[in-house]
Amino acid sequence: MVDIIGTVADDIVVSEGLAKGAMHLIDEERADYLYQMMQKMTAENDPALELVEASGGSAANTMAGIASFGGTSAYIGKVRQDHLGDVFARDMNSLGVAFSVPQAAAGPATARCLIMVTPDAQRTLNTYLGVSTLLEPDDVDPAVASAGQILFCEGYLWDTDSAKAAIRKAMDLAAGAGRRVSLTLSDPFCVERHHQDFLELVSGPVDILFANEAELTALFESDLDEAVEKVRAHVGLTCVTRGPKGSWLVTATDVVEVEAEEIAPVIDTTGAGDQYAAGILYGLSRNLPLPVVGRLGSFAAAEVISHMGPRPERPLTDFLAEAGA
Q: What is the pTM of this model?
């Protein structure tokens, strides 16, 4: 997926009928309309500025963050043989993230996400999934899925049967190789759409779960305290992000409270959860203590919200010593 990011006024989010801070699935026609509108608004606000365009997508952003920490990561996803598909593949490999899934010769265009950032730094996502939804089990290379210490899967792709089958295949391969399986719930609306499936995954192959407060409470249809008690009975580690209040790392017997780090004023919250996951996964892969793992996640999130865009601008290796890694 290619991320297209621009600043808009709050009234635009309202007039377009969007739920602020949420992800909305759109078709290609709607994507073209919003892109043109965001281009116009950006030019009107400052003719010297352009929309930020970067290869992205939630799990891809996380893999890029792991590479920025100095870790080894690979990405499984589908792009089309088009301009944006070429950009995505070139960008990922240049970052040190292995990406070898063949580009589709036919079908919908490469996916893109139009991200509207309001003055309070909240981001509202409008996602055209395009060919990314046509990820199939045959696209999953068994050697890739079973090679890493941790398999990371995103909930956003659960909207199509072929992608679900591909994710389940990857999970089975990783678990069969003795690897840990992790899942991010991605979005409260995503949880509502796939509530029962996500409950089954959490009760089954998932060893590490990523969720914010709204997603976790939606999953268990309860308040936060009750949701924590329920999830710890099924998942070895649950990472609950709480915005400026930091995060909780929930195990079967303990809750490690992690403070939010401050690097610079908040500019754009796009990618905060993705980079938080990168820090957590990198720390876990090195078998670091949970408090240190949590700080890595907090530093990565703090870096990415200090500027526009979902990827680190400053190498995340800069924060290893400060985090105690």
A: 0.86
